[in-house]
Amino acid sequence: MDALEILFTASFWVAVIRIASPLIFATMGELICERAGVLNLGIEGIMTVGAFAGWFTVYGGGDLWAGVLVAALAGALFGLLHATLTVPLGLSQHVVGIGVTLLATSLTYFTYRLLLPEVTSPPKIEPFQPLAIPGLSSIPVLGEALFTQTPLTYLAFLAVVLVTWVLYRTPVGLAVRAAGENPSAVEAQGISVTGIRMGAVVAGSALMAVGGAFLTMSAFNSFFFEMINGRGWICIALVVFGSWRPGKALVGAILFAAFDAYQIRLQQISGGIVPYQVFLMMPYALSILALILVARRATYPKALMISYQKGER
Question: Which residues have a Cβ under 8 Å from the Cβ of 258 and sit 6 or more positions away?
Answer without folding.
Answer: 16
